[in-house]
Amino acid sequence: MKSGCVKLNLNYYNTFILVAEDSKADHGEIPRAKRPQKTIGEIQFELLNGYDYKYTQEELLFETHMLHKGIPEAHRDSEKVTFFGKSQACMRTSPLGKRYGWGLHFNKDGYVKLVAVENPLYRQYANQDDLTITRAMKSKR
Questions:
Q1: Which of its termini does the chain have fewer beta carbons within 10 Å around, N or C?
Q2: Average pLDDT for residues 37-41, to the nearest whole number?
Q3: Which InterPro entries has this protein been placed in (predicted)?
């Protein structure tokens, strides 16, 4: 896990995560892998696309974990204890912002919305004084 982006059971509030500085994306791209198992990026995109402000960072990270690892619903409660019992990488490490051209807007209640880099709303959020602005982590050091 890269340093500088570990959050222990915390959500973002009034925050906009810009795409990574080294991202080559000039538009929001739908993640598509060439393998049978879905990637983290694909899962996160499917959970967020069309579901504005449905998930907090914690909820999104946990749902992604459950789906990516194929953990049965019957184990949800025990898995949640295990998952949140250790630090987790924050959404700044998400492939959505690092590679695929998606900004992440967290509202005052901590719920997230995807915003494509080419969307005028992206520029609006990026210049909004009442938001904390940060960037997705670079892919390369």
A1: C
A2: 94
A3: DUF6157
Phi and psi torsions of 103, nearest 5°: -90, 160
The string of DSSP letters for the chain reads --TT-EESS----SEEEEPPTT---SS------SSSSPPHHHHHHHHHTT-TT--BHHHHHHHHHHHHHT--GGGHHHHHHHHHTS-EE-GGG-HHHHTS-EEEEE-TTSBEEEEETTSHHHHHHHT-TTSEEEEPPPS--
Angle at 109 between CA 108 and CA 115, to 5 degrees: 70
What pLDDT does 89 receive? 87
For the whole model, what pTM was predicted?
0.90
Rg (CA), the chain: 15
Tokens standing for residue 15: 């925050």
